[in-house]
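Note to self: keep these together.
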Amino acid sequence: MKFRCNNLLVTGGSGFIGSNFIEYIFKKYKNINIYNLDNLTYAGDVNNTLMFKDNKNYKFIKGSICDTELIHDIFNQHKIDGVINFAAESHVDNSIVNPNIFIETNVKGVLELMKVACRFWMDKNFNYKNEFLNSRFHQISTDEIYGSINFGSFKENHQYRPNSPYSASKASADMLVRSFNITYGLNTSISVSSNNFGKNQNNEKFIPKIIECIRSKSEIPVYGDGKNVRDWVFVNDNCRAIDLIFNNGKSGEQYNVGANNEITNLDLIKIISEIMSLDFKIGFVEDRRGHDLRYSLDTTKIKSKLNWYPINDFRTSLEKYINNLIDHEGI
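Structure:
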């Protein structure tokens, strides 16, 4: 498969999924220049990029996707012909306390990126310049945009029903992406993934938090009764999906990415405890406001249209991830 652009702007590339994606792309493709724009907030870490920081085709740029002048300079200087936007505020609890920054980054930032892309790639609406005929803007989204579902699974055409300021900001961004495709003719795609896990994940997230608490023999904080259900996809599988969607997906479409690994939070703790061969203690805490009970994605579309399937077994990948943390990071 040929990569659709030469000079790719990856925003949020020092974060969890973004850094894994850059590593994946450099391993799979040759002669692609990647420009990583990251503001290095709590979710971004330069240590996540050590593996490829000396790659001659890689350049790190510190800055915000809300900085229109900076984005314009990056497009001009590096002839950006593709964008994949991982950059986002993603801590749900923080969004409840202070939603403003989530709207600023997750909505306004996406708007600024697309405005610059339109100006740089197109002569006028629906008319791409010859050197940018393959250019595309890809948005990374989340299953939280759909809200909670008791039975069945969400399809791509399901109504958005976000229940937290974070998920509302991501849903708003998706709507902006859709509008730029329909109104201005911007070539866009969206991937909506379930919960990711794997290396470089921030310690605030549930699986790293479980591992650390079990190791340190401290209580694992669990919201409510711990029966919330999530579908877990290994980050490498999501990177493969994003690659396929960006290069081969239909313009204006979105694709669900999940792995059919639905499990309650309590059962997840038990599995991790078994892998680590250590006991655990749970400290139940007051449930999060707007806490969704169950996420579930129907992935028929990406399987039938792009022939994507998760290839990493959940338990095996989880065990490998845990062992890597213990061996290399002293956890």
